[in-house]
Amino acid sequence: MTKDPKRFTEDFMAYVKAKNPGEAEFHQAVLEVVETLSEFLVKNPRYVEAKILERMVEPERVIQFRVPWTDDKGNIHINRGYRVEMNSAIGPYKGGLRFHPTINLNIFKFLAFEQVLKNSLTSLPMGGGKGGSDFDPKGKTDSEVMRFCQSFATELARHIGPDTDIPAGDIGVGGREIGFMFGQYKRLRNEFTGVFTGKGIGWGGSLIRPEATGYGTVYFAEEMLKTKKDSINGKTVTISGSGNVAQFAVEKVLDLGGKPVTLSDSGGTIYDPDGIDREKLEYVKMLKNYYRGRIYEYADKYNVQYFENERPWSVKCDVALPCATQNEISGSQAETLLKNGCFVVAEGANMPSTYEAEHKFLNAGILYAPGKAANAGGVAVSGLEMSQNSMRMSWTREEVDEKLKCIMENIHSMCVEHGKGSNGVVNYVKGANIAGFVKVADAMLAQGLV
Ligand SMILES: NC(=O)C1=CN([C@@H]2O[C@H](COP(=O)(O)OP(=O)(O)OC[C@H]3O[C@@H](n4cnc5c(N)ncnc54)[C@H](OP(=O)(O)O)[C@@H]3O)[C@@H](O)[C@H]2O)C=CC1
Ligand SMILES: O=C(O)CCC(=O)C(=O)O
């Protein structure tokens, strides 16, 4: 075994690329982890000898299936469904479902791999998984979405369960879709259990679950700022996306006295220099969650600039919260952010920074938090929803929010513990990867060669 961390990373990546050809996002997610773990691993050969990392990049199970459904005109459509059950060393598989036309197995493997370490960071007993479909909910009627979800859940039902695998939402999957899938599962199994999270409040959901990812990301940014005796108060904040995570990131930035100035969708970005206030946020929630409209409609309504096909990263800010999708900040956009004075980046989305962007942030020594740490609040409250379901009780909004805050503070402390360099700068990527890895790896060692 080599004692040279750089060589270790190169050898391991050659192995991963040979076994998983053409899976660019999966390679990127693994590289980010191995690069920051290699020094730790060569000093702790028991993990290397037991091939823990080789086992962690191999899903325990990959399920792929056909999803046939009919549209409102009676036309037949065939989509593809997936569930990647990545790792169950510390608990049942847990992670969201994504419905988006661009997905493929590579995307779900990267998301599931990230999810394993993220779930470990929450300190709750959850393994990692991810899944979804190439179905595009955009432009579909409620009844078409329902028929698709029922067909998807009919096949998925045989693979999931409240103690086996507990899916939730992600891009394109919100309360409406979880409702349709939960309803179908209940009908097939004749049981009312906490098999999905993100359920409605009246039927087993947890208060604060919709808010949790966005709120948690801002709590994490606030924790990072505290290390500099600073806060969100008075900061200009750029946010990408306009879905679940982005909306509640805006809400928490407002609660803490910051000024959110951008939102986006796949069509472009709106820039509101006066700030997206609570009234405007309510408009965005109605536009996106009820009317399922486009973000340019905000620009028309409030007479602000709309940058078609552009992302928010050229707008001057103190804090950037990417909350849309993977690889949405390129290396040159990261440079622009830094040049404009941005000194905090907290990732609400999963892997929104390209490899180049991430390294620009790390080299600049700014407060930069990777998604697996900063956006862990969502799955953490999913874990709390599972606990409430098992106990058949509900905690209040204040109780759940307090637990969420505590979990985010705890993740921040773990990142500092494992990521603080001799110069005092915290590498949150390294900290999150080591802290997340050790718990899963120790459980795998204890459970033998499985
Ligand atoms: N929901 C959750 O609890 C959690 C979500 N995340 C991550 O947060 C991110 C956002 O998820 P969420 O808010 O739930 O999803 P939503 O579907 O609610 O919103 C997604 C937003 O991102 C935009 N978007 C999606 N794909 C692209 C793309 N390829 N290019 C540009 N914009 C895009 C969408 O625009 P459009 O409508 O035009 O597609 C939309 O505004 C994802 O990375 C997800 O994995 C992480 C942890 C938990
Ligand atoms: O709540 C969950 O189970 C999963 C959330 C999710 O998909 C994520 O953390 O990326």
TrEMBL record:
Domain Glutamate/phenylalanine/leucine/valine/L-tryptophan dehydrogenase C-terminal residue range list: 206-448
A matching Pfam family: ELFV_dehydrog
Residues that coordinate or bind substrate: K94, Q115, K118, G169, S382
Residues annotated to bind NAD(+): T213, N244
Alphabetized SMART domains for the sequence: ELFV_dehydrog
Gene Ontology CC entries for this record: cytosol
SUPFAM superfamilies reported for this sequence: Aminoacid dehydrogenase-like, N-terminal domain, NAD(P)-binding Rossmann-fold domains
Keyword line: NAD, Nucleotide-binding, Oxidoreductase
Zinc as UniProt keyword: no
GO process annotations (BP): glutamate biosynthetic process
Domain of life: Bacteria
Positions marked as site (Important for catalysis): D170
Active-site feature positions: K130 (proton donor)
Molecular functions (GO terms): glutamate dehydrogenase (NADP+) activity; nucleotide binding
Subunit structure: Homohexamer.
Family: Belongs to the Glu/Leu/Phe/Val dehydrogenases family.
Protein name per the record: Glutamate dehydrogenase
Organism: Mariniphaga sediminis
